[in-house]
Amino acid sequence: MTQEKVLTLVLAARFIIGLTQELRPDQFETACVRNVNAKPGICHSHDFCDANMTMHDAWCATFNAEPDVANEKDAAIWSAAWTIATKLMADAGRSKAADFIESKGESKP
What we know:
Blueprint: H1 3-22, H2 25-35, H3 51-63, H4 72-103
């Protein structure tokens, strides 16, 4: 795995951690559940905060520099981390929905 891929994963993780610190637990959970059926490129964390600023902070912590979104490489890393994070959040949302269904005594989808 290349250093760029590793840093993209770190960025995605820091973004999610930032969201968990910025949002109330119920808001983060709701964003995760909403991400299950979100269109590509959409993250429902924006329903509760300016998630671009959260990603910006994660970027600065990861790269010790400001992102240059006009730079194709930076933009690609930002977008890839965003995609990874929203997929991980959707996975958490699916898990939460499955737990809810199971607690009601219904079969899982």
